């Protein structure tokens, strides 16, 4: 990977700075709410100063003086605005309510035939929110305790334990789903329908429960669900809708089929006439990816393929990639106030699908210009450090002089206060002694003074005199002890200097000479160890063993003779060295010398490193760490660009994304090598699915290949699927791949189905059918 970006002189003049959409299939889709792409230092500085007005005051320079490398996509990361709950609509009794109950986003609104001016060419849902609900513990009776969807705020998000109604892609938590449906009904203006329920409800918040016992919700409703939704999950929803809300009828439909119908919708045709006879839907949702074949206007459920990999797994994988690359910036990959993680925002705004993953990796490694054209630098928010101006030598000297004068003044004031205190204490003692002497000479004056100074008896006066003398004696003792301790420390320092060996003194006074002497001693010790090893090898024979035995025998004999002549053997510690001499072998001597050699080598290495740090300047030392010690550089916030140039403070808070932009999305096509999921990739599943049909059916399917789900919005997804299909099928097969026009395709398709009233009435499940057949009953339709 290139270490630094190319200079402007190395780039052809025809290439524009900070923009290469033709070379980059994953160009950012920046929006005012999420990302603000900057193309010059002036605009970048202006934007940063408006967002952080205090930064210019702290640094004394432009708030954002960082200049991005040429030919890279640079942008400041800005958290999206917190979603707000819109004002409730006016209730429409005849309007059809469309619910898109996705596991990642839920959408609700009235189906309208004519879009409003704000909705451009297609209707959009009135409310979009994340399907989570939280309760505030310990709330007062007059405080709101339940928060749903867009009611979550930044201050409450960490205090609420958010729960979702889905497990994977199916609804499993009926209680949470009930709260989310209440939230949607309220926004659609149906709060007045719940007035009959509020009188008997102990909860402080409005609820729509038990409307079935009265008039209920009279609106026709359409609900989307995932493909192959279990009947038990559908029974939960049917029970909630019919028995709790009293709906007259409900139309269930697969979200991917609604999305396809939105693409083929014709205003002058019915649903049956508009729906294609053969099609292939590739749906890649939040938790799973499905291949849905349409044959004769029916979903062939026997040939549906499923890959347990979706947008949720891609987000987690991209988060791990970024954390491994930037371990010191993990704090930015946390949940935001909207419940959306930073990794999810990066995935949606910066990642794309490569047309050929492995070939593009090679090109990124070989072509430096191509590498930087595909690099997105994401600047995370940070607080600039305060710039401290370096003082001159004269200013430092003046500051030290002022500090010294202040210290001397404080010491002088302290001495004056102590002197006044001692003088007052001595005067008080003299006066007390004078009073005591007056006790025998002038009794009347003595009694008068005793009453004036608060003494009742003579014993109290004696106690006052003793207290003052005791204070003086203790003060003198402390002074003498302090002086004695000072003299003792001075003597110990002198003794310590005398006890230091010549090598220790040399190490402190002349480290280089000490290092030279230690290296010489190390070499001599190495030679001694080698010589002893050779002698020990020669002495390993029988002659050597006999010589060692004779030596020990002579030592023991001489010791016995000495003990017979002298009766004081053992009184001195040196007498016991004879046992050490007897028990010492060549192996023990070698081990001790080798240990001493290792200790000497450690001391030499430590001194060399200390001298090396003194010689190198800070800049050279940082360059040495970046070049030869990756862990040390990472611990000091490893920058995005290596080299000896000075680094800007902003570079320590940046995500430089190149390979990560396409690697996470590639996991859908190659789950086994990238994620370790034992399953075939997306296009392999498509090939297995198409192999079950005749060539004529496959040709008709290829005329209607539709991409659905959140992952279908990746840049390059449509082109990748089309190229893979062309490589898979015959040359003369016509392929037409279409993607979702917006994230509302499923909801818009369901709202357009609602325009065909006859189709909705014929295929909806009514309350009478629910009472007769149960909640697991299902009507099959297109």
How does this model look, in words?
The protein has 782 residues and is of the alpha+beta class. It has 30 helices and 21 strands. α13 (393-441) runs antiparallel to α15, α16 (502-509) packs across α17 (511-538) and α17 runs antiparallel to α20. The two termini are 52 Å apart.
Instruction: Flag low-confidence runs.
Output: 1-63, 116-120, 196-206, 616-644
Strand content: 5-15%
Structural shape: extended
Rg, nearest Å: 44 Å
Percentage of residues in helical conformation: 40-55%
What structural class should be given to the helix and strand makeup?
Answer: alpha+beta
Structure summary:
Helix content is about 50%, strand content about 10%. By secondary structure, the chain is α+β, with helices and mostly antiparallel strands. The radius of gyration is 44 Å and the shape is extended.
Q: Helix and strand layout, with pairings?
A:
Elements: E1 35-37, H1 41-51, H2 53-59, E2 73-77, E3 96-101, E4 106-111, E5 127-129, E6 132-135, E7 146-148, H3 154-157, E8 163-164, E9 166-167, E10 170-171, H4 174-187, H5 195-198, E11 221-225, H6 231-244, E12 249-254, H7 255-264, H8 271-274, E13 278-284, E14 289-295, E15 298-299, E16 305-307, H9 311-325, H10 342-350, H11 357-366, H12 368-373, E17 376-379, H13 393-441, H14 443-452, H15 458-499, H16 502-509, H17 511-538, H18 542-565, H19 577-583, H20 586-615, H21 618-628, H22 630-635, E18 654-657, H23 660-666, H24 671-675, H25 682-690, H26 695-701, E19 705-708, H27 717-728, E20 737-738, H28 745-753, H29 757-763, E21 765-766, H30 767-773
Parallel strand pairs: 2-17, 3-11, 11-12, 13-19, 19-20
Antiparallel strand pairs: 1-2, 3-4, 4-5, 6-7, 6-8, 9-10, 12-21, 13-14, 14-15, 14-16, 17-18
Helix pairs in contact: 1-2, 7-28, 9-10, 9-23, 13-14, 13-15, 16-17, 17-20
């Amino acid at each position: 990977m290139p270490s630094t970006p190319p200079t402007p002189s190395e780039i052809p003049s025809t290439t524009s700075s900070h923009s290469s959409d033709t070379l980059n299939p994953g160009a950012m889709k920046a929006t005012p709410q999420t990302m603000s792409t900057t193309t010059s230092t002036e605009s970048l500085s202006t934007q940063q100063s408006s967002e952080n007005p205090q930064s210019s005051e702290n640094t004394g320079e432009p708030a954002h003086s960082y200049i991005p490398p040429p030919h890279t996509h640079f942008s400041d990361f800005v958290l999206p605005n917190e979603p707000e709950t819109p004002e409730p609509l006016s209730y429409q009794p005849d309007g059809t309510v469309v619910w898109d109950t996705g596991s990642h986003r839920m959408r609700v609104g009235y189906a309208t035939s004519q879009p409003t001016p704000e909705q451009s060419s297609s209707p959009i849902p009135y409310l979009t929110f994340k399907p989570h609900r939280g309760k505030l513990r310990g709330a007062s009776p007059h405080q709101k305790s339940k928060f749903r969807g867009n009611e979550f705020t930044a201050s409450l998000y960490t205090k609420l334990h958010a729960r979702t109604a889905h497990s994977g892609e199916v609804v499993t938590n009926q209680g949470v789903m009930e709260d989310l449906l209440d939230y949607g009904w309220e926004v659609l203006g149906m709060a007045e329908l719940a007035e009959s329920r509020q009188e008997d409800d102990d909860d402080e918040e409005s609820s729509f429960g038990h409307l079935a016992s009265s008039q209920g919700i009279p609106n026709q409703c359409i609900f989307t669900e995932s493909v192959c939704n279990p009947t038990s999950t559908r029974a939960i929803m049917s029970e909630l809708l019919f028995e709790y809300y009293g709906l007259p009828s409900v139309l269930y439909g697969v979200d991917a089929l609604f999305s396809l119908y939105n693409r083929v919708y014709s205003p002058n045709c019915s649903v049956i006439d508009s729906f294609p006879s053969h099609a292939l839907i590739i749906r890649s949702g939040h938790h799973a990816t499905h291949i849905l074949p349409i044959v004769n206007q029916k979903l062939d459920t026997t040939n549906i393929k499923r890959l347990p990999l979706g947008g949720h797994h891609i987000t987690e994988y991209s988060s791990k990639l970024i954390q491994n690359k930037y371990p010191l910036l993990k704090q930015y990959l946390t949940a935001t106030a909207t419940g959306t993680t930073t990794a999810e925002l990066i995935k949606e705004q910066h990642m794309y699908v490569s047309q050929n993953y492995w070939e593009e990796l090679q090109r990124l490694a070989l072509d430096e210009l191509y590498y930087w054209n595909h690099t997105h630098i994401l600047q995370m928010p940070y607080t600039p450090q305060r710039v401290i101006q370096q003082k001159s030598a004269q200013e430092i000297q003046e500051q030290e002089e002022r500090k010294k004068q202040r210290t001397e003044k404080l010491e002088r004031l302290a001495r004056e206060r102590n002197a006044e205190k001692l003088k007052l204490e001595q005067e008080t003692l003299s006066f007390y002694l004078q009073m005591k002497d007056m006790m025998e000479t002038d009794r009347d004056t003595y009694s008068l003074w005793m009453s004036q100074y608060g003494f009742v008896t003579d014993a109290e006066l004696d106690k006052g005199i003793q207290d003052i003398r005791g204070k003086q004696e203790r003060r003198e003792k402390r002074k003498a002890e302090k002086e004695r301790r000072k003299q003792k420390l001075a003597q110990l320092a002198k003794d310590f200097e005398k006890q230091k060996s010549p090598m220790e003194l040399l190490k402190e006074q002349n480290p280089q000479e000490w290092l030279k002497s230690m290296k010489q001693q190390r070499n001599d010790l190495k030679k001694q160890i080698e010589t002893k090893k050779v002698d020990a090898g020669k002495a390993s024979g029988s002659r050597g063993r006999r010589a060692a035995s004779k030596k020990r025998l002579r030592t023991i004999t001489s010791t016995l003779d000495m003990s017979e002549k002298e009766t004081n053997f053992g009184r001195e510690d040196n007498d016991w060295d004879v046992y050490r001499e007897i028990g010492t072998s060549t192996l023990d001597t070698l081990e001790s010398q080798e240990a001493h050699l290792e200790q000497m080598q450690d001391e030499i290495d430590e001194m060399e490193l200390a001298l090396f740090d003194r010689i190198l300047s800070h800049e050279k030392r940082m360059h040495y760490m970046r070049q030869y010690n990756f862990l040390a550089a990472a611990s000091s916030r490893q920058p995005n660009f290596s080299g000896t140039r000075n680094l800007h403070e902003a570079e320590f808070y940046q995500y430089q994304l190149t390979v990560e932009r396409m690697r996470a999305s590639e996991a859908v096509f190659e789950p086994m090598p990238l994620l370790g999921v034992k399953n075939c990739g997306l296009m392999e599943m498509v090939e297995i699915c198409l192999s079950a049909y005749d060539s004529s059916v496959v040709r008709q399917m290829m005329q209607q290949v539709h991409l659905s789900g959140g992952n279908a919005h990746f840049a390059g997804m449509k082109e990748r699927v089309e190229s893979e299909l062309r490589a898979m099928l015959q040359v003369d097969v016509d392929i037409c791949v279409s993607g979702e026009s917006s994230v509302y395709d499923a909801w818009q398709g369901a709202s357009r189905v609602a325009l065909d009233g006859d189709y909705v009435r014929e295929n909806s499940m009514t309350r009478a059918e629910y009472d007769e057949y149960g909640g697991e009953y299902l009507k099959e339709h297109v």
